[in-house]
Amino acid sequence: MIKVQRLVGGYTYPPIINGVDVEIEQGEFFALLGPNGSGKTTLFKLITGQLPITEGRISISSKEIASLSKLEKAKKIAVLTQEAHVSFDYTVEEIVSLGRYPHQKGLLKQLSKKDLDVMEEVMELTNIHHFKTTPFRMLSGGEKQRVLLAKALAQEPEILLLDEPTNHLDIKHTFQMLDLLKDRQQRRGLTIFAILHDLNVASLYADRIALLHHGRILDVGDVDTLRKADQLKKVYEVEVTPGSHPTLPKPQLLMTPSYTDSSRPFYFKNSYRIKQTKNYFHIQFEHPLRTISNGVIGDGIQWVKHVCNFHVDRNYNGSEPKKDLQSWMTDYSIPYVQAVGMMTAVMLEDVVIVKKEIEGIHMLAIVTAGVGNAVDITKRSFLGAVQTVGTINTMVFIDAHFTDGALVNGYMSATEGKVKALNDLKIEDPESHTLATGTSTDSLVLGLTQQGEKTPYAGSGTIVGRGIGQMVYQATHEALKKYLKRVHEEGYRTTSERVGVMR
Ligand SMILES: Nc1ncnc2c1ncn2[C@@H]1O[C@H](COP(=O)(O)OP(=O)(O)OP(=O)(O)O)[C@@H](O)[C@H]1O
């Protein structure tokens, strides 16, 4: 749709834009990215005709842009620039009406019913209706931006060119504006070419991106192009780690500042406090740990300072366990936004804590174990109602630095240690009468100080991985023995719990 070929141009010599080739397809959302001064606005001005071209060619639907009359261009293309000077004291409505100019007929150029309908629609869409009689100059920067977008949409263009359209907008209005543009793109086939600064926002909305560097296109492609961390580092001179959006298949970038964290390194052995009551087990760290967990609170990969395991009645049947945990933590002044939270009906006095130092790496494993819900994952086809004193909650903390891959690896190592403990104690799935591999509600948190050299692996082929497996084995084995003893001595199985131990 828009074809830019061997484009050279810009204010100075040598020119700012120095041989740009790029094609924007019909109906796509194309984002132009690049650092300050890379030439984005200059390229934009060359495309919109605000600056003369020195060399090369720009065509729209195969027609050279220079050959189109002003009116022909205005019917096809609307432009939203950063430098929108509105010199007269126009009202918002009057500004929007200017967008209809290319469509007005006759010498008097009066607004038709269609013009008024379109204006109403775009003012509604951009949420500026309520100040349509306000003078433009009296609006905030963000409000002005929405009015200028309404004017551009009133033009009913095939192509919309936008230079940093979200510049003055807060996150609500940024997302509102881009959602609106995306909707126009998807429903009406609007072609969008936008200069954007926020790479994460570009990733969420653009179909393709181009990265401009020193007046040349360094790379162009779909948004996964943003996963090329080395390229981004070269262009922006910032440490970038590509991650992923949790619900959309789009990259999201995490930037690392270059200042050093003055609280590190710290001595792991002195960096935590444990509090244990009948109601809860709480380990508090002085410095946040990088955690991977399936806890009711703090699941996924996080940084947390608190890990809690709350005792619940064996008949606990809360429909909103997350809310319950948040309120219990609040009662005990534990900030749940910095926490991993688990629940168990196991007696907390049976908790087992194992500390180890393996090849200079300090490790800590804490386990509460019950096996009322023991399951052989390979045999069960369905589960009955969950029994409550039947959970193995495992907490492992290590003074090491893991990559995200190593966190997953470490999680596997911990699970292998747990399964081995269950097997050695011959814990049985009461339905299948085979060796259990876990319980149906097990929780695990693995926390790392992220100190020292980064480790990419933590499986059984590594010292740290074996350390995790061995500690979890030892702690789980001991905790299970305490549980089985209690079952044996106290007739713990009075309700519907069943604990099978194979003979
Ligand atoms: N009117 C001008 N006259 C001369 N040089 C200019 C003019 N406007 C911009 N430049 C220069 O052109 C280069 C590219 O500027 P441009 O505005 O295109 O960058 P940009 O990528 O849009 O930057 P930003 O992200 O800061 O908006 C810069 O070195 C700038 O100093």
From TrEMBL:
Classification via Gene3D superfamilies: P-loop containing nucleotide triphosphate hydrolases
Keywords assigned by UniProt, alphabetized: ATP-binding, Nucleotide-binding, Translocase, Transport
One Pfam family recorded for the sequence: CbiZ
InterPro entries: AAA+_ATPase, ABC_transporter-like_ATP-bd, ABC_transporter-like_CS, AdoCbi_amidolase, P-loop_NTPase
Classification via SMART domains: AAA
SUPFAM superfamilies per record: P-loop containing nucleoside triphosphate hydrolases (SSF52540)
Record domain ABC transporter: where: 2-239
Classification via PROSITE patterns: ABC_TRANSPORTER_1 (PS00211), ABC_TRANSPORTER_2 (PS50893)
The keyword Transmembrane appears for this protein: no
GO function term, MF aspect, one: ATP hydrolysis activity
Protein name in UniProt: Adenosylcobinamide amidohydrolase
